[in-house]
Design brief:
It contains 11 helices and 13 strands. The chain is of the alpha/beta class.
Length: 321
């Protein structure tokens, strides 16, 4: 009997330990007096465009430090790959820094991500904030079972709506986060609770097959994009479909599909029509026109967090649990 009880106890400890390892870590929420670091992981940026973002953080009672990448100039990029990686490394390893806010997107984060050592970060995670090219960071870190914050970047602040800025504040300070939006004719009704993943469609497409690719199975997928040819949207969506990603997700949220381009011979469908046609066969809740992405009303989303997506005839509700 003692041997059986000992075996059961060891099994229970093993299962509990495994569950703890699989559980998503939510970084500590901010409080007044905490320090946020602003840096560039992709395109270059000077100090002047960052002043509104710095003022916003200070209005929330937070302190601000800027990284060494601010002001660096390496053609399009904010310094060499090693400089951007080193700046990011120093900020995530610094215990005094409670959040890291990407100054700007564009392209370049994927060039520095593999130079970063996340050993200390895994033990003491902090909020990583941004969208667009920062999708690389979100997916890479979500794979470590650590939540991240998809929201406006520093350069977005002057044109962001009050709702977008307030949603970022609520997310950072751990206040209730829930959105109710109008219905869209392409929506598919249903309710599901699952982990939220995703970000920029082009970036997600570009990291397929890499160690930064997110695990789509059983998740709610959020996608958005900007300034793509319409046939590119079709090509990326078809790739995800043919590789079984849409068959594995439990729900889809489509954000802004902004400033799309077309060829001299028109593709014949806009971005939402393309997405609706490719996803219509799946019996899962799908929400169109969610206010997030390359739009002024870019609401904050906690990627890696469990959310409840409810799509009805009257509208859509997304609640962060």
């Amino acid at each position: 009997m003692q041997r059986i009880l000992k075996t059961l106890l060891i099994t229970l400890i093993f299962i509990t330990s495994a569950q703890a390892q699989d559980q998503m870590k939510i970084p500590p929420y901010l409080k007044k007096g905490d320090t946020v670091a602003i840096l560039a992981t992709a395109r270059k940026i000077d100090m002047a465009p960052l002043k509104p973002a710095i003022a916003l953080l200070k209005s929330w009672g937070l302190n601000v430090v800027t990284g060494k990448t601010v002001g660096l100039d390496n053609n399009q990029l904010a310094g060499a790959d090693w400089q951007r990686a080193t700046d990011f490394q120093e900020m995530i390893d610094n215990p005094a820094i409670k959040a890291v806010w990407c100054a700007k997107g564009g392209y370049g984060t994927v060039r520095m991500i593999d130079r970063v050592d996340f050993t200390k970060f895994k033990k003491n995670p902090k909020w990583i904030i941004g969208f667009s090219d920062a999708t690389v960071l979100h997916s890479h870190i979500n794979n470590m079972n650590i939540a991240t914050l998809h929201g406006i970047m520093c350069i977005s602040v002057p044109n962001a709506t009050n709702e977008a800025k307030e949603s970022l504040r609520k997310a950072l300070f751990g206040e209730t986060l829930a959105y109710t939006i109008p219905a869209h004719p392409f929506n598919k009704k249903g309710t599901v609770t699952a982990e939220l993943i995703g970000g920029n469609l082009s970036v997600l497409y570009s990291i397929l097959g890499s160690m930064s690719e997110p695990d789509y199975k059983g998740k709610i997928l959020f996608i958005e994009d900007l300034d793509e040819y319409l046939y590119h949207i079709d090509r990326m969506m078809m790739n995800l479909k043919r590789n079984g990603y849409f068959a594995n997700v439990k729900g889809i949220i489509i954000g802004g599909m902004s400033k799309m381009r077309d060829n001299d011979i028109p593709w014949g469908h806009d971005a939402l029509e393309i997405i609706q046609d490719i996803t219509k066969e799946y019996n899962i809740p799908i929400c169109f026109n969610f206010p997030a992405g390359h739009i002024h009303d870019n609401r904050a989303l906690i990627l890696g967090s469990e959310v409840t997506l409810t799509v009805t005839e009257s509208g859509t509700k997304v609640t962060f649990n």
